[in-house]
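User: Can you model how magnesium ion sits in this protein?
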Amino acid sequence: MNKIGVIFDLDGVIVDTAKYHFLAWKQLANHLGFEFTEAHNELLKGVSRVRSLEILLDIGKVSLSEEKKQEYLKSKNEHYLKYIMKMGPEEILPGANALLDKLDNLGIEYVLGSASKNAPLILKQVNLFERFSGIVDGNSVTKAKPDPEVFLIGAQKLNLKPEQCVVFEDAIAGVEAANKANMISVGIGDSNTLHEADFNFKSLTEIPHDFFTAVIPEKIM
Ligand code: BG6
Ligand code: MG
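Assistant: Here's the modeled complex, given as C-alpha cells:
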C-alpha cells in the first residue's frame, strides 16, 4: 500500500476561529464607518491577514496609507488575540480529536498547513500543539493560499510526495491550493462552496471509517 500523510488546515477544520476574526474585523469596519456582515466574513476564510484587510477595505471602498494599514493590521490582531487567549480544548471542533486518534492508531503522520501566523498559539491554547509532527503556518510561507506553497512544505515535512498527501480544508482558497499541489483535497463544510474538492464532508464526524484504509488508497493507486 502506498504510504500516505495528512495535512490539516487549522481555522475552520480543527477549531472555529472565524467567529473571532469576524468580531475583530467587524469592529475595524465599524470604526472606518461601514458595515461588515457574516457574508463578507466568508470572503476572508483561508485568506492571509494582509489580503483580508485589502478585501475589507474594498468592501468599504476605503483607501488607506501603508502606515495606516500596518496600524490597523496590528490593532485587529491584538483584538483577535484577546479572544484566542480565552480558548481552551472545549473549542476543538467535533470529530477532530477522534480523527487524530485514528491517524495515530493507523500510524499515519499529520502536519498542520495553515495561513495563520497565530497557528502555534491557537494549537497551544487547545492543547494540540504537541500532537502534530510538523507545523507550517503563515510565518513559514512567502505566498498565501491559493498558492500551494504551504502544502508543499507540509509534504516535505511528511517526507512524502504531494500525491501521497491528503489535505483537509474548509476554504475555497485552501482547496484550490491543495489541488494545485496535486494532493487529495477533502472539503469540510458546505459541498456547494467546496465543490472543487475531491471529497466533501459536512464535518470531521462524517469521515467514513475506512477512509484512510480503503477509500484513499484506492484513489491514489
Ligand atoms: C486563516 C483564516 O486560517 O488564517 C483566515 O482562515 C485568516 O481568515 C488567516 O485571515 C490569517 O490568520 P492570522 O491569525 O495570521 O491573522
Ligand atoms: Mg480554514
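A couple of observations from the model: The CA atoms of residues 186 and 199 lie 5 Å apart. The first helix runs from residue 18 to 32.
User: Helpful, thanks.
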